Amino acid sequence: MYKDRILRRVRERRLLHSVSLELTFQCNLHCYYCYNDRLKTGNMLSLDQYRVLLRDLAEMQTLFLMLTGGEPMLHPDFFEIGKLAQDLGFVVRVRTNGHILNRDNCTRLREEVAPYMIEVSLHGATADVHDRQTRVPGSFDRLLKNLSTAMDVGLRCSVVTTPTAWNEHQIEEMLALCDALGLPLRFQGPVGPRDNGDTEPLALQPAQATWDLISALQKQRRHDAMPSPAQDQAADLFSEEQPEERAMCGVGVSGVDIDPFGNVQACMHLQEPAGNLHRQSIKDIWNHSPLFQQARQRAVSAAKQFTDTSPRQFGAPLYCIAVEENIRQIKKVRQGVDSAPVLIDYFDKINRV
Amino acid sequence: MSPVSHNRKKDMETLLDAEQIRLTSQVRFRAVGEEGVLVHLENGRVIVVNEVGLFLVQQLASPVTRPELARAVTREFAVSADRVQADLQLYLEELDREQVIEYST
Fold first, then answer.
1. What tens digit of pLDDT does each residue of B54-99 get?
2. Facing B28 at nearest CB: one of A6, A90, A231
3. Which chain A residues contact residue B48 at CB under 8 A?
4. So which domain of life are we looking at (chain B) (predicted)?
5. How much is the ipTM here?
6. Which of B35, B46, B48 sits opposite A237 (nearest CB)?
7. How would DSSP label each residue in A275-328?
8. For chain A, which domains are there?
9. Which of chain A's termini has less CB crowding within 10 Å, N or C?
């Protein structure tokens, strides 16, 4: 009923149902293919501004709030923001690399933030593969220890991994590892360019055969184990829904992303801001910016190329307009066709380095 | 306030007028138009409630007795007290089964 009726109503009435807060771009890992633009600058939102934002969102009946980054727990006010989110009745999800999920932090998370779910990133089934991607020795062993602690404390956890050329030989091992931990594993992808258009991460794209293997394994697992209705609901709550009108994703319809500097975007990876919370309220931006409808239209247009075929992008069984647009934008800049100031600024910085 | 454990189901027939009812701290809810969505953090269940259900859930965000609830529903929806009593009983039983509410004296 939730997906059939409620989500349909959310989209029809353009209700801001879910919000992703990128609290900081700082991170304690250094993942090779990370999409964040660490050179992006601006005035960080203050705790007071987060208070205003969350109260506005509660009034707007926003239900889901994701705290992400960078590593969100590195934000100096992470627990205050999380506590406020709990007090204001949001269903909170925390997307973390798990590196500082020690017992103290897990206990504070449970008691002060009470998240619905902690989603941690896994990069391989063994330390050499995982640590190669995070570029932090010991991060794999620490993640496993912290995951065990988080579950012991009573936090609901799930695991997400991005298949890459460096870990694609461990797909089944990663599934087995998560099975042993009793945690669901979600595969996300493809590896995209960084949010500033830097295409360096694309060198780590896995083979299409890897995605085919993942699809086959997932199909087999669905067949082997029918979940209980309650488990099914928990797992599906955050899954991407196909809107009624055929579109590549739900961008522009019911959710926004807010970066550490107050830029409100239709999607985490579409860097064009619809407005900025230093100057406008979230209500003004959501109700008046045309950017959301424009992003929506681009997602609808993109879907038209897949009327007879299944979406594919770098081998992955989906098509993300942000991946496409970010790559196209950087190509234009390199060819001198466009003069996107942000990207040129980025290249200037790179050249100086 | 000392909430009753939800390890045992509340017998609604024994619910005293003075007993207060409220949503448990494990429940989050929002209005979506005229309906409501409840998410139970502990068991992961998602519950959709209709307009009357949403009104009740909003009332239950703070501790409230059954007579107070009944009066609020009567005022809001202009239905008879007898009808409200019967419906409220069923509805509270359903919310109890879903482990959405807790009680205190």
1. 999 999 999 999 999 999 999 998 888 888 888 898 899 999 999 9
2. A90
3. 1-2, 5-6
4. Bacteria
5. 0.84
6. B46
7. EETTTS-HHHHHHH-THHHHHHHHHHHHHGGGSSS---BTTBSS--HHHHHHHH
8. 1-336 (3.20.20.70)
9. C
